[in-house]
DNA sequence: CGCTGATATCAGCAAGTGGTGATGTGAGAG
DNA sequence: CTCTCACATCACCACTTGCTGATATCAGCG
């Protein structure tokens, strides 16, 4: 069956800055301070984006002293990958399944 | 290398209605009339969403008489799948790459 | 405890986005 | 040719969303 992709997760990844954050986090686990340096965004702004990513279930927080580290949940990304792969596979065969004009 | 995912493509897929359209198109090639029936959306609204999907390079149009059929570009979805797979793979090893607190 | 630095939250504003009705365009039927 | 139907575009409104400054919270240090 075509597992339905969760629009909220995709939505969260649709923002350029958040996508950049995800790409950074795919390389190393970072805390907010690092992300502020790397992206040049204001702390407030970044905290908002992290909240979106957190609520979408894309990242997990890990407190470390007075720093909070963000870690990517690779299962979520892997799930997305699989769902898009399914869609792509289905799309390859859909070209012949053309429904007749009404 | 981590191929950077195109935010515009993801953005286009982030809307619930568009995601539903894509899921429908993954099964069969349909024209706007069919999509209006299936989704219950107004024709104008649907036309707008199809424009977004078209400009994001996710679908192709194929005129057939006075009907226009929409076909999913499976390569794009496959590309997304691959890029998310890369991100997921990188994220799996990123847990140990924790940058020191500043 | 009081201070400092790291984060999160809140309020407000500007810009982007989706939905809808009116209208334009173009192909096929009569 | 004219009418109809499929589809696209335009104009407008409502809502959402991102960004920012101000403020709250909370951990560690002296």
UniProtKB/TrEMBL annotation, chains A, B:
SMART domains the UniProt entry points to: HTH_ARSR (SM00418)
GO MF annotation terms: DNA binding; DNA-binding transcription factor activity
Pfam families per the UniProt record, alphabetical: HTH_5
Family matches, as PROSITE patterns: HTH_ARSR_2
Domain HTH arsR-type: 1-92
Cross-referenced InterPro entries: ArsR-like_HTH, HTH_ArsR_DNA-bd_dom, HTH_MetalResp_TranReg, WH-like_DNA-bd_sf, WH_DNA-bd_sf
Domain of life (superkingdom): Bacteria
Keyword Secreted carried by entry: no
UniProt KW Nuclease keyword: no
Keywords from the UniProt entry: DNA-binding, Transcription, Transcription regulation
PANTHER family assigned: ARSENICAL RESISTANCE OPERON REPRESSOR (PTHR33154:SF18), TRANSCRIPTIONAL REGULATOR, ARSR FAMILY (PTHR33154)
Protein name as annotated: Winged helix-turn-helix transcriptional regulator
Record organism: Streptomyces coelicoflavus
């Amino acid at each position: 069956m075509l597992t339905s992709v969760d629009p909220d997760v995709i939505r969260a990844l649709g923002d350029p800055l958040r996508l950049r954050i995800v790409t950074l986090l795919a390389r190393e686990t970072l805390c907010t301070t690092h992300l502020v340096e790397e992206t040049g965004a204001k702390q407030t702004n970044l905290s908002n984006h992290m909240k979106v990513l957190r609520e979408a279930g894309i990242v997990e927080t890990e407190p470390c002293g007075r720093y909070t580290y963000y870690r990517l949940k690779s299962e979520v990304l892997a799930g997305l990958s699989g769902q898009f792969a399914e869609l792509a596979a289905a799309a390859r065969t859909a070209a012949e399944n053309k429904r007749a004009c009404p």
